[in-house]
Amino acid sequence: MLVIVHTVTSGQRLLDTVRLLDSDLRIQVVFTMAPDVFSNGVAQFISSLGAVSLPWLQATQQRFDLAIAASLGALHEIHAPLIVMPHGAGFNKLVTTRGDARIASDRVAYGLDAQRLLHNGAVLPAAIVLSHKSEMERLSRTCPEALPVAVVIGDSSYDRLTASLSHRDSYRHALAAGPNQKLVVVSSTWGPRSLFGRWPSLLPRLLTELPRQEFRVVALLHPNVWFGHGTWQVKTWLADCLRRGLSLVPPEADWCAVLAAADWVIGDHGSATLYGTATGAAVMLAGFPCSDIDPASTLAELAAIAPRLSKRGSLRDQLARVAAEIRPGHYRTVTERITSAPGRFNRNMRHLVYRLLNLRQPATALTTTPASLPFLVK
Prior knowledge:
By secondary structure, the chain is of the alpha/beta class. The protein has helices at 8-18, 42-49, 56-59, 114-117, 134-142, 156-164, 168-174, 195-198, 202-209, 223-229, 231-237, 239-243, 255-261, 271-276, 298-305, 315-325, 332-335, 345-357; strands at 2-5, 30-33, 52-54, 67-69, 82-84, 94-96, 107-109, 118-119, 122-123, 127-130, 150-152, 182-188, 215-221, 247-249, 264-267, 282-285. A seven-stranded parallel sheet has the order 3-2-1-4-5-10-11. Strands 14-13-12-15-16 form a five-stranded parallel sheet, with helices on both faces. The chain is globular.
């Protein structure tokens, strides 16, 4: 089986599926780095696994029994039945399909668009992994030709996150949060319209306005921020914040553990913000470019009900007010749209993989392991 890694983010997601093949001596797994503008760090990621790796050119010249990817670039060059899956929480961000991004009808959610799912008029994947049954309806509008190969499997990150919630105290300790401290997680996706790109003064303000004996501020940045700008640059940008007590999570740490430990999640239009609704934390938006998000997506639904963090007024007062006002179940409608097969990703995905490999599944039982302990940038 060939594992096609475009970015570190997609590679981390694909490992959730590769682990389902543990202990099966019938299957040889090899990795390849696909061409992508955010491929920085991928070679090191694959090397750290100790896996067999093929150059892209060689991978495109061989035949495999199965290939799997969590991004869609250049997949038509691969010779194998292909599984494609999202690398985040469903399909949320709009991409241009016909060249004029100003026309709404020319923008559809990445991963559900015919431009990438079809090649020479034929459906490219052998299977399209969906997290929720509502995505079937969305796919029927954007690429109806792909409906016969779409399968509702579930969401591996959601399952791992919910399995991690009972380990919250251990994660808080690993993040250096004291027993009397509240944990404020600031999560940013990548790009100029991200929280980190549009509100760079937020972290310094939080460190100034939140007493250190009562609060711990943790920054969770998308891997594309780290690998797009470089580890040295990110640490340099945040040097003053680090000196003032900011906890900075490196891209190789398990972000699910960080969300499971949070009392507040302050985020943007990244998937981590959406997953935060499953933790019981108070989720707030500190930036949300609505024009970049599919109105039919789960993220758009979150934007309609999540409180916003304002640059005006006391940040501490805003956090306290939201924590007092948010009731259990406030985000239930959003969380329920992340997956319609909660706890069943492993079972469903292993069944799909072995069906396409034409192999009998192992008799071993599958369990969802909680996130590993997080760690911080030194």
